[in-house]
Amino acid sequence: MNTEQVKTAFPTERDCMLFLIKKRELKTGSCAACGCMASDLKCYEERSCFVCCCNHFIYPRKDTIFENSKLPLQKWFLGIAYFNQHQKVTGQALSDFLDINYKSAYYMIQKLRKNNLQDFFQ
Ligand SMILES: [Zn+2]
What we know:
Blueprint: H1 3-9, H2 13-23, E1 42-44, E2 49-51, E3 57-58, H3 73-85, H4 91-98, H5 102-114
Antiparallel strand pairs: 1-2, 2-3
Helix pairs in contact: 4-5
């Protein structure tokens, strides 16, 4: 997926969060505890979690490279797509592209170099 496709596929934080849980907890598309559909879960973007009607909490960032980051997931997803296209990207270039500060961009590149995310969107 290129950066334009990421923008189209993940227009909101919630879309990114749903993608993450569908990759992991909700591979079947529903809550493991009660069977509710992932799309019916209540989304708390500011806490970066979903809550099901059965009171099951799901944290999409848990145990991922996004866990300790305050950046919106859409920035991360765009960063991943950009990095996959431009492996030699500098912190300054990524900072400009994502409109985030240099420190965050540099941190992101370190994470992306350590983790192979070529297949992230598949
Ligand atoms: Zn549930």
